[in-house]
């Protein structure tokens, strides 16, 4: 997200702000700087620029052993007509991604993050029930348990997989896909779920509660199965930062990253440790932390939905 237009992004992440979408440029939508975003024209059968809104938030990349060079990319897309998940495919080495389909559903009034479970199925979080107005404020400030997870199955139908989550935020899966992890920011907790095979609904297995830490996003280290959870020490400072970032602010939402190690018996949840704490100067409102490996070098890359840069932490244990 760091590469996109921060001004435009702020408008779709804060739908209550006064905003005239007529001035929105196609380029504002494109946060994927190195790849063209294309679709197949139904009239000429040629690849043409993607014609829909492309206002991204969380995303995921999926591939499998059948053809590891064909990637599926799924994006939360805050289209002006409503929340959606846009699915694209990409051949490794190609200079573009090609639109496959956009899933729209009334179950996605405020989608946040998505995890792909196959080329055409996913789980997506919906953080709040009311995307706009006073009810949006009430939900966020009072941490109402009105978020949910949506399952989109192979039949092309969206359903509620689990409801009653206080601000369902980041979502990720375990390396073998057997567990789905969701950050419930307003609880604040990380919940581990087991997907059921018949209808994709989610069965809670364990919950890890936090004190003095509001989890935002989750990434999974596919080599070890550990979770990296990024979050904030002061959520109100974060909300102030997000509101004021375009006009200048002295808010400095301190951030932290915690590592959760799943116990062999998942009903016991996770062992938890602190990876880093920062005062917010490095990267205000850090929302994402992912591990990057180059041979034996490990780094953590930090990102934020509001920032115009990423930060890198070297020398990790
Ligand atoms: C959350 O982190 C995952 C990496 O696990 C990333 O793919 C996703 O885009 C992030 N979501 C947001 C909203 O930044």
TrEMBL record:
Write out the residues that bind Ca(2+) 1: 112-113, 216-217
- Indicate whether Hydrolase appears among the record's keywords: yes
- Which Gene Ontology terms cover its molecular function? arylesterase activity; metal ion binding
Task: Please verify whether the record's keywords include Hydrolase.
Answer: yes
Q: Which domain of life is it from?
A: Eukaryota
How, per the record, is the cofactor bound?
Binds 2 calcium ions per subunit.
Q: Which UniProt keywords apply?
A: Calcium, Disulfide bond, Glycoprotein, Hydrolase, Metal-binding
Per the entry, which co-factors are needed?
Ca(2+)
Q: How is the protein modified post-translationally, according to the record?
A: Glycosylated.
Enzyme active site: 57 (proton acceptor)
Which residues are modified by glycosylation?
217
* Signal sequence bounds: none
The residues the record assigns to binding Ca(2+) 2 are: 169
The family note in this entry says: Belongs to the paraoxonase family.
Q: What is this protein called?
A: Arylesterase
Q: Which organism is it from?
A: Coemansia thaxteri
